[in-house]
Amino acid sequence: xxxxxxxxxxRLGSMSIKWYGILMASxxxxxxxMAIVEGKKRQIMPEDFSDFLLWGVPIxxxxxxxxxxxxxxxxxxxxxxxxxxxxNGGIAIYGGLLTGLVVLILFCNSRFLPPLLMLDIIIPxxxxxxxxxxxxxxxxxxxxxxxxxxxxxxxxxxxxxxxxQMYIAGHYYQPTYLYESFFNLIGLIIILVLxxxxxxxxxxxxxxxxxxxxxxxxxxxxxxxxxxxxxxxxIRISQxxxxxxxxxxxxxxIYRRKYKHVKWYLDGSGLKYPYER
Length: 277
Prior knowledge:
This protein has 10 helices and 7 strands. The protein is mostly helical. It has one domain (17-267). β1 (8-12) and β2 (15-18) form a beta hairpin. The chain crosses the membrane at residues 17-37, 49-71, 83-108, 115-133, 176-194, 206-225, 237-255.
């Protein structure tokens, strides 16, 4: 590797603190703050978001790792000691998101909160966290695409430090992390601009918009990556999940608009705010 940026930010004694961990932690904090600010406008108490975070994040990480291990079982069956070695990589975003979704539904049912409204409030922060965390892949020189030429990267008008960091073991590579981060940023800006427009989003539709947007972005980015998980060695798992989520989101959005009386997103939770737990 030809590291321009050292993955280790600093050391505390024998412990190495890596930029990837710092970026992920920063993304989680920003996501929480964004949810709290928006939640107050939608009559959801801040502690409901912080309490969910205490459950959702650790269980989400377990789900993300489990997802990866399941689809790489041929390797882990031969190397069981590596199952818990998350410092070597192997955290699948879709696994974390799907696990987090289950945790959120259970959490909301226990607190008598509307799950789809909670998802609408939380999801822009999740997008922000994804955007930030992808730069950890950049620093680690991982989750990249196939080999490309220097002239190709220069044609994208990328900053010099990005081009240099994409020089790995004597070759330049597609900065797929950058494509995903950039297009997620565009999606986040669109959602933040539109979600407060009266008469536009019904409850759950901010979340469905995210699923539609991210599934399209991930489908095309995944097609360029060289480290994809495969089903039966032929189908890229993330592309399959992207197609499923895209179809489900479109169907639910149309069905709920046509056949269900759904509250507007801006109507909030309808709970007497502030409330006590």
